[in-house]
Amino acid sequence: MATVVITGAGQGLGRADAVRLAADGWSVVCLDLNGDLAAETAELVGGTSFAVDVTDRDAVLAVADEVPECTALVNNAGIWKFHSILDMTPEQARSVFEVNVLGIIWCTQAFVPKMKAAGTGSIVNMSSGAAWTSSPGLGLYPATKSGVESLTKTMALELGPDNIRANAIGPGLIVSDGTAANYQGDAAAKRAKGVPMARVGDPTDIADVVAFLCGNDSRYVSGQVIYVDGAVTAGALAR
Ligand SMILES: NC(=O)c1ccc[n+]([C@@H]2O[C@H](COP(=O)([O-])OP(=O)(O)OC[C@H]3O[C@@H](n4cnc5c(N)ncnc54)[C@H](O)[C@@H]3O)[C@@H](O)[C@H]2O)c1
């Protein structure tokens, strides 16, 4: 059975990805900073879990030593700290960059050798609509997600000869564990008014596309970014 490694699998989009991929028959390895949540997801999907900080390269490499095979990697773990450019502290900037960009590189370095051994692989990196259209006060987050998209293209070019694909997904407004506080009361309905498809998204909206990109149906798709956002980015200039 094929094995997928998912970072940030303890909750939110990562957990939804785990549920969907397990339903497709994948053996799921759940990685998260929060080991208890990762273990909960693993129990839910009959997979395995590891508590690991994706910014700790040595720790990620040690986890990879414990995982016998990997043919798909979902680099989903991400954080955001919102503030103006002028207020940004070195700690805020470094932490967001280290998780959202360097974490993807360390996990890719750790798991690609297993894909090469298998002769096939798919990497899915989690970007954001914020890579395409920013707003005041989003801090370094949009820049890190633009970086994710750029990295994805480089990965696709470097790893294509090994039959390893790399793509990114740009979620729009998705109600997850991490963002639920933004959708309390009538906030979800208000936010939905800015979405051409007139609703905010659910983690399963993303997980279904993750499943497509991990699976064989996307076997000739690489170096692409798919925005899964109810057409928000399509109309960004019009607003
Ligand atoms: N929810 C949205 O609306 C939305 C929109 C655009 C992009 N995204 C992206 O999707 C991804 C998932 O978002 P979410 O809403 O599910 O977030 P979330 O906060 O609900 O879950 C993120 C998970 O990542 C884990 N994590 C954080 N730092 C980590 C680290 N250093 N090492 C390992 N695990 C770590 C957390 O413990 C948590 O379980 C992120 O990359 C985010 O930027 C989300």
Entry keywords:
41% helix, 7-stranded parallel sheet, 7 strands, 239 residues
Each distinct ligand: nicotinamide-adenine-dinucleotide
Question: Helix and strand string, N-terminal first?
Answer: EHEHEHEHEHEHHE
Mean pLDDT: 97
Annotation field: number of helices: 7
Apparent shape: globular
Main pleated-sheet profile: 7 strands, parallel
* Number of structural units classed as domains: 1
- In the CATH hierarchy, the third-tier topology is known as Rossmann fold
CATH class: Alpha Beta
CATH architecture: 3-Layer(aba) Sandwich
Residue stretches low in confidence (pLDDT < 50, at least 5 long) are none
Strand content: 15-25%
CATH superfamily: NAD(P)-binding Rossmann-like Domain
Global Rg: 17 Å
Sheet/helix structural class: alpha/beta
Structure description:
- There is one protein chain.
- The chain has a 7-stranded parallel sheet with strand order 3-2-1-4-5-6-7, sandwiched between helices.
- The chain has a single domain (3-228), classed as Rossmann fold (3-Layer(aba) Sandwich), CATH 3.40.50.
- The protein contains 7 helices and 7 strands; from the N terminus they run E-H-E-H-E-H-E-H-E-H-E-H-H-E.
- It has helices spanning 12-23, 35-45, 57-66, 90-118, 141-159, 187-192, 203-214, and strands at 3-7, 27-32, 48-51, 72-75, 121-126, 164-171, 225-228.
- It starts with a strand and ends in an 11-residue tail after the last strand.
- By secondary structure, it is of the alpha/beta class.
- Strand 1 (3-7), helix 1 (12-23) and strand 2 form a beta-alpha-beta unit.
- Helix 1 (12-23) runs parallel beside helix 2 (35-45) and helix 1 packs across helix 7.
- The structure holds nicotinamide-adenine-dinucleotide.
- Nicotinamide-adenine-dinucleotide binds next to helix 1 and helix 4.
